[in-house]
Structure formats: C-alpha cells, structure tokens
Amino acid sequence: MSRRKSGEKIDGWVVLDKPVGLGSTPAVSRVRRLFGAQKAGHGGTLDPLASGVLPIALGEATKTVPFVMDGRKEYRFTLRFGEARATEDSEGEVTATSDVRPDDAAIRGALAAFLGEIEQMPPVFSALKIEGRRAYDLARAGEAVTLKPRRVRIDRLEFLARPDADHAEFAVMCGKGTYIRSLGRDLAIALGTVGHLSALRRTAAGPFREEQAISLPKLEALGHIPALFGALAPVATALDDIPALALTEAQGDRLRQGQPVLLTGDAPPSGALLRAEHDGKLVALVRSDGSAIQPVRVFNL
Question: Which runs of consecutive H residues, i.e. helices, occur in the chain?
Fold first, then answer.
C-alpha cells in the first residue's frame, strides 16, 4: 500500500466517521500515519463508546482547530431509563436503579427546560483537569472528584423515537463544552427516574457533517496518495463562517511576513475577524483595527 514519506507536508481536513470502541487520539494517529502528515489534531473529542463525525486536521489545518472546537455540535443519542451508571454511559457499573418509565407525553414536556443557556454538571468520568490531573484518572483510581457546574448552550433538543419502554432516542444541537452524557442523566432525573446513554453519535461538528464523513476502512482502502487526496477537505473549510477579504499579491506577501496591511478603501469595522485570501487561496486570518488589518494566523499553503 503506497504511503507518503513520514514528515512530508500535507494540509487539510479529514472528516472521519469514528467507529465505536476507538478513542479520538488513536483515531487521529491512524489518519496521520495513513497520510504521512507532519502534524495532526482533531476538532473535538469523541468518547470511545461514541461514533460519528471526528474532524481531523492535518498540517496547516491544525491552526484552524479552535474554530471547529468552538462551533456548534449535533448528536443523536439513546437514553436508557431505569439504570444510572458511574460513567453515565453503558461502560460503567450500575449505581442506581428505578422502576419508573416516563411516557412519551412526559418526555416531550420535559425538553423545554433544557433549551437555551443552562447549568450543567460535567461527568465525573471526563477529560476535565483537576489540579493538573484528568477527572477520569482520579475517578478510576477511586479518588474523590469535585467538579463545578458550567454554563452550556442547547439550541435544539428533539424527541425522535421510543423503541421500547426502556429507551428513547433524541437529537440535540449544542454549543461548546456540552456533555451529552450529562444531558441524558439530567433529563432522566427530571422525568422522575434515572438513566444513562446507551448510544451516542455525533452528526455534525462546526461545518463538518455526517454526510461528508468517511470510515477508517474506506479511507485505508483508498491506499494510494492521489486517491486519499479525494478525502481531504481544504484548510479553509473550517473558516466558512468567517467573511473573506480579497488581497493583492503584494498585500498577501506583507501578511505572510507578519506585517499589517493598510486598506485604502472601506475598511471592515474595528475588531472584525476576516479570512484574507489571494486568488482564492487562504493567506491569513486577520483582524481589522478600522483602517488596517493585522495578521492573527498566517498559513503556509
């Protein structure tokens, strides 16, 4: 199977359909090795028991990771009523049970309370750091884990289906930092029972959607580098929501050297973040001061 030499420059995004059972970090490593990319990162962690959209940044695309991390996420999840688990998903041990099974009307009636800005307590088994240590490491070691509630935003929460009395399926659109495991836990409690997530799939992360995603087996089956390039989205894909500003070649050169560019025409308002381009190629992320643009992130493309 043909591969690029390790360390050769390659830039772009791979929208991976991460399978259940594979962690985000190992998934990134496998894709990076497949392309032989110098650098790699991802646009938001997915638990090993979750599947779906894991955007993987290669090369210069790693400079745009924060914009995907800060973007809206969409998920489908299945809530299993009647069992609370230590990890708030099916991996952990059962910590509480309940015979209560809410009806569909009760479920629909409970959803509105979870929309908008809400307080959410993160799961004990999470990657949040406490005095430099991951919460899940402390929890697995049997140490006390004290977390604080956080403000998160949920823009949509939809009841999709009821396969049986024990399970209900939902779709959610949410902002950065939202834990779907915590959402499922709290929804079950609001319905007078306990519960945990039995399935979780991310269907969108920022501009990247499920329809674009490619599985690892399909990616590996492409084999040769020209074919792999077909699975590579441009670096600028992560910046689609940022207005573009066309530059001359000379202006682009100044930005690449880290120098500001004075705009002779109507300048964007002070503080505006823009995607500076020359001949359709991304040059830099810039910020306007009302008369000139200052480079924030310069891209070597």
Answer: 24-35, 65-69, 104-110, 135-140, 180-190, 216-222, 225-229, 249-256
Number of structural domains the chain divides into: 3
pTM confidence score: 0.88
CB hemisphere CA count around 218 (13 angstroms): 12
CATH of the domain at 148: 3.30.2350.10
Residue (of 219, 238, 239, 243) closest to 229 by Cα position: 219
Distance CA 281, CA 246 (A): 9
Answer yes or no: is 7 within a domain.
no
Instruction: Name the catalytic one among 11, 17, 47, 186.
Output: 47
The two structure tokens encoding residue 229: 């390039």
For residue 10, the model assigns a pLDDT of 87
pLDDT in tens, 249-266: 999 999 999 999 988 777
Strands 292-298 and 167-174 come out as unpaired
**Spans of the chain, pLDDT less than 50:** 1-7
pLDDT of residue 283: 94
Farthest CA pair distance, the chain: 71
Which residue, chain included where needed, has tokens 């069992």? Answer: 83
Buried/exposed 187-205: b ≥16 CB within 10 Å, e otherwise = bbebbebbbbbbbbbbbbb
Is 99 part of the annotated catalytic residue set?
A: no
